[in-house]
Amino acid sequence: MSPGLGLAYPWGRDVRRGTPVVVTMENPNYSVVEIDGPEAEALRASLPLTDKGRGRSAKQFTWVLLLRAHRAAGCLASLAAVFWALPSTVAKRFRRAAAAAGEGEGPGHGQGWMLYKFIKGFLALSLLALAVELAAYWNGWHFQRPNLAVPELRVLEVEDIQGWVHLAYLTWMSFRADYIRRPIEFLSKACILLFVVQSLDRLVLCLGCFWIKLKKIKPRIEGDPFREGSGYLHPTVLVQIPMCNEKEVYEQSISAACQLDWPRDKFLKQVLDDSSDESIQMLIKAEVSKWTQQGVNIVYRHRVLRTEYKAGNLKSAMSCDYVKNYEFVAIFDADFQPSPDFLKKTIPHFEGNPEIGLVQARWSFVNKDENLLTRLQNINLCFHFEVKQQVNGVFLNFFGFNGTTGVWRIQALEESGGWLERTTLEDMDIAVRAHLNGWKFVFLNDVKVLCELPESYEAYRKQQHRWHSGPMHLFRLCLSDIITAKISSWKKANLILLFFLLRKLILPFYSFTLFCVILPLTMFVPEAELSVWVICYVPVCMSFLNILPSPRSFPFIVPYLLFENTMSVTKFNAMLSGLFKLGSSYEWIVTKKSGRSSELDLFTAEDKDKKGAMLPQFQKQLPGKGELVEINVPREQHEKVPHDTKKANKIYKKELALSLLLLTAATRSLLSAQGIHFYFLLFQGVSFLVVGLDLIGEQIS
């Protein structure tokens, strides 16, 4: 991982900060004192009691206080260092953003520019309205109640009007109460209705999860098929590892796949390398060669024409002649590390159940405590697997395939049309088509596969854009197929109303519209005020439900609520691009990995540089023509790509503009004495500011 900026965050990893302070004195009355160390309790127990029952002498107690004061001073110094480094860090990022804008890389020249223009226009009007309200307040034209009735404006006599400016202000108040209030109220009520429906859906999912745990419902395997003398016939399994320029994680994923416990004659690993960097290709070939020399049945594939992203890669691999000899295919993305018994925990669920087409395992994260961003992602994904996937798997036998850590029956893939490249979410596409063909899915919540979360906000933002634009693009394409499919009406309703519309379209729509548009708008049109339960009570309850699957994250309930609202602008933009088939709806960017293989291990840059220096040796060891490299591509056919540019934190202008908008609305709410509205807008504005300055995830010097 890249070095940080020296900014210490209280939400970082759970490690002991600093070195325990040890004080050794020559005076025999006291020798060693260690504060907050592992031996603290033993130290307290070992202190002799005096005749008067005191645990420490006065001198010992004084030293304890001094050492605690030393630690407190160290914490204050760390916080001071953070605030001292913050202005220069922010200034550097603004300069970098200005340079990028000069080169045509700003939001006005790329995706989301229409939304950015809308936010800027809204911000300009808000600043103008705030200036008007401040001037009115300064002149004593304000009213105590925010819900100002129009008749109260007309009782003023002519002599009470203090000039034409006062008259213009009264006319504006009358106009907004008569004409602007009603459309805002209509839109807010519609969003509140959607908000309530989506909250009920989440509550039903949580009740279903509670019922599953109460009744201990889960997919089970009859007996132990792998015990000695059971006569279990191992089916043939194909393992596919698609990857693309993932230098940080290729080694650990190949190693984990090669260590799966399954008979070698019934087992084949395919490394599907779409890398455009020749040096990474050679590293992956060398790793495959190493395992081949150890007797592992593994092949390396590299496509001549790398089109259609991951779907094209998987489609090309399934077209091999030898695939017809295999019954099942397990798929693992490049940063996933299955345990050796993964196949033994998943394959037996197909036995005696010919209608099952997919067995899906859940994800487990090696870096969930790395920073605040990974902690918040962990909350979302724990709810996704523990609640959504498990409930849908138990009660509906259908859920969206996660693209990895799943085992497919190859017959189900073939009958459903195979991998298609029509969207960036090929996993959801094949899952919907298999469901329409009558195949059932099984979700195993107790089978976990290690992977890593994106540690930088840039990587997470791009990932979320793809995850929220793809479903809407797919919905456009498969709506007619769902309507004409030969499945029950309630399954069609579940797919259209719940799976796509409610959870993929309505959620980002109302989240952005209600909290980022309507709420600040009501501060300048106080006649259309939102209720407190809409902006406070219900969102907090829903956040509490989301955190239940990961109870250790309970202290982060407020940051989680604020961050989810902050991400609504990205999700809303992605949803629109997918729904209306805009340019960014078919954009695929590989999520950046750091190469973490466990919570306590991370490949260092030095080790990777050594491997890069050994490339000439690897090239000599690789066979020229053999079974290892199935598709031998001449060097001149490789697409030349520049080396990765140096990573750096960025400035996100849409988030910064929304931050200024919400802080402006918070300032306006002070004039109406709306306490909860003010605090919500203030904290939400600060949340947008932190994200806009890219201070939430990995900090890169």
From TrEMBL:
Subcellular localization, as worded in the UniProt entry: Golgi apparatus membrane
Entry similarity comment: Belongs to the glycosyltransferase 2 family. Plant cellulose synthase-like C subfamily.
Gene Ontology biological-process annotations: cell wall organization; plant organ development; pollen tube development
Membrane spanning residue stretches: 495-524, 530-548
Organism: Urochloa decumbens
Sequence ranges assigned to domain Glycosyltransferase 2-like in this UniProt record: 329-538
A UniProt-annotated Pfam family: Glyco_trans_2_3
Keyword match rRNA processing: no
Function: Probable beta-1,4-glucan synthase rather involved in the synthesis of the xyloglucan backbone than cellulose. Seems to work simultaneously with xyloglucan 6-xylosyltransferase. Xyloglucan is a noncellulosic polysaccharides of plant cell wall and consists of a glucan backbone substituted by xylose, galactose and fucose.
InterPro entries associated with the record: Glyco_trans_2-like (IPR001173), Nucleotide-diphossugar_trans (IPR029044)
Superkingdom of origin: Eukaryota
Record-given protein name: Glycosyltransferase 2-like domain-containing protein
Alphabetic keyword roster: Cell wall biogenesis/degradation, Glycosyltransferase, Golgi apparatus, Membrane, Transferase, Transmembrane, Transmembrane helix
Coiled-coil ranges from the UniProt annotation: none
UniProt GO MF annotations: glycosyltransferase activity
Topological type in the membrane: Multi-pass membrane protein
